[in-house]
Amino acid sequence: MPTQAVNQILLVEDDPSMAAVYRSYLKGQPYQIHLARTGQEGIKQLEQIQFDGILLDLTLPDINGLEILKKVNQEQIPTEVIVTTGDCSMNTAIEAMQLGARDYLVKPFSKDRLVTTLKNCIENQQLQQIVDTYREEIDRHQFCGFIGSSLAMQRVYQIIDSAASSRATVFITGESGTGKEVCAEAIHQRSERSKAPFIALNCGAIPKDLIESEIFGHVKGAFTGALSDRDGAANAANGGTLFLDEICEMELSLQSKLLRFLQTGTLQKVGSDKTEKVDVRIVCASNKDPMAEVQAGNFREDLYYRLHVLPVQLPPLRQRDNDVIEIARSFLQQYAHEEGKAFSQFDPETELTLSNYDWPGNVRQLQNVIRNIVVLSDGESVTPEMLPAPLDNCTVPLHQSPAQSMASASQPPSQIQAPPIQIQPEISQSAEQQLSQLIRPIAELEREAIERAIDLCGGNVPTAAHYLGISAATIYRKKNSWKSEL
């Protein structure tokens, strides 16, 4: 049978007889008890040992036990505190709970009460650790070069983590500018090969008569200009990862050699009759549909199935919720620092324009737009007037309705007319009261929907976020804003 984990418990109690009673109560339980007879001794042990739980007497000879509770709270020490005291004052209990105490035991208490309370607190702490770990995994704002907390990207991060631990080949697809090379590097960084080289080769940017040499290398005299022996990318990536970008652009004749290389793990330099053994993991990418290329006769079917073992589909920026604003803010901070500019934020109207734009060039286009703004403009806030083409014709005033926005977008700039001024009729007081009862603010409805979803999901925020179609980070931010309103 597996050994049950032993939890470290700090008992802060100045009365030796009471301390002996508590020890006897907990005998046979999976706890290792550390005794502190004064508050200062307890604080000293807290600094040396990571405790799972604390049984804290409030009446100590040197300091009030609440001081220890304040230290745990201020330094965010991950432990559960159970207050034990003979003072049953409700004010004391409330103060202890406000400072983070998990439970409150009034002396004298029974063995069963102590054992049950401590067991519940330890289980709660272990559950919270699992939740925190899960939250970090599914609610990441940044990940190995990626920026974005949308649900679509959380799925990508999880796939990268899973693929990184494997030796299988990875095939990344996605539109231009979605970050395929960033994805390949992330897989490499999270893998056991992270200390070995990561070599990237763009198969579409190298002349067709040189691509074989670039991958496998060549010997002196193999062709005109081969003045010496040269290792290729496969040899350079030995022990690490070879990333072949735009692999669908590779010549069919070279595809057969790549297939043989993948099957045997050996390569033959151009102009050589010797084979060399190399250990590389292949990650490839394409902005085309590889199966469509197979059906069109441009890509070998056997190579497709050899490479397409772990597919990763990167979503375009327009499908990533509010990631565009997160990414834009990050680029703004980076380029403002590099260029010595004062930019620190986007005007609300500018953010609206950035969010509504389709971004056909994806993250790369957004990156170029932000750099253009920082280089050619100056100020603390990015205003709509600073946006370069084509975004300068996409600005949507904050007061404009969605219907008006769509109508404006469908017309040439010269034909867009200002919306007519509408004179609101006077509303009687009784009618106004009736409307205020029938029409409720969107913020209230939103909060109700979120809180109801969390309740239905048993308090699981990530699951609630999934069904609401928003990121868990959005819910956490809104919950924090609701707390600040109290």
Your description of this structure?
Helices cover 46% and strands 14% of the residues. The strands form six sheets. It has a five-stranded parallel sheet, with helices on both faces. The protein has a five-stranded parallel sheet with strand order 9-12-15-8-16. Strands 6-7 form a two-stranded antiparallel ribbon. The protein is extended. The longest helix has 28 residues, at 111-138. The chain has four domains: 7-135, Response regulator (Rossmann fold), CATH 3.40.50.2300; 148-220 and 229-315, 3-Layer(aba) Sandwich (Rossmann fold), CATH 3.40.50.300; 318-399, Helicase, Ruva Protein, domain 3 (Orthogonal Bundle), CATH 1.10.8; 433-485, Arc Repressor Mutant, subunit A (Orthogonal Bundle), CATH 1.10.10. Strand 6 (142-143) and strand 7 (146-147) form a beta hairpin. The protein has 20 helices and 18 strands. The chain has helices at residues 16-25, 39-48, 65-74, 90-98, 111-138, 151-164, 180-189, 211-216, 233-236, 252-264, 290-295, 301-307, 323-339, 348-356, 362-376, 402-409, 429-438, 442-456, 461-468, 472-485, and strands at residues 7-12, 31-36, 53-57, 80-85, 103-106, 142-143, 146-147, 170-173, 198-202, 217-218, 230-231, 241-245, 266-267, 276-277, 281-286, 310-313, 345-346, 381-382. The protein has 486 residues and is of the alpha/beta class.
